[in-house]
């Protein structure tokens, strides 16, 4: 009986540890009250809802949806534009495997790579941006692409 109880406690403890690492807009606002107070009331409402809009600063985007999973830079005649990618990994049926850059969770039963392609349960995983945010050279949001 003690073994059965221990086998239930370990997964619950693991889930608790992983959930503590998940940040919400509320927790990010608590961590950066100065950034939040510098936003307009309309921007503050969006941040509380976990949403972003054109004109947001990089700090406002981080408050609303967190750090990007990876960043790329696009250069054209108007300058350099950072592009923030928020990534999702799906299985072959479209079920979400991970939200976020999977390397953060390596060793926790996530996808593995073979020949440059992520696999999960023996099948190729679909990797795509669920949100892509393009910043202007002045580091404010120019555009937001979101998969529906």
Report on the architecture of this protein.
This protein is an alpha+beta fold and 148 residues long. The chain has one domain. 32% of the residues lie in helices and 32% in strands. It has five helices and eight strands, in the order H-H-H-H-H-E-E-E-E-E-E-E-E. It has helices spanning 2-20, 25-31, 33-37, 41-48, 58-65, and strands spanning 70-76, 79-90, 96-99, 112-114, 117-120, 123-124, 126-135, 141-146. Strands 1, 2, 3, 7 and 8 form a five-stranded antiparallel β-sheet that branches. A three-stranded antiparallel β-sheet has the order 4-5-6, with no helix packed on it. The protein is globular. Mean pLDDT is 78; it is low at 8-21 and 102-109.
Radius of gyration of CA atoms, rounded to a whole number? 19 Å
Order of helices and strands: HHHHHEEEEEEEE
The first-to-last residue Cα distance is 47 Å
Number of strands: 8
Overall residue-averaged pLDDT value: 78
Helicity, as a percent range: 25-40%
Strand content: 25-35%
Which features would summarize this protein structure in a list?
32% helix; single chain; 148 residues; 5 helices; alpha+beta; five-stranded antiparallel β-sheet; three-stranded antiparallel β-sheet; 8 strands
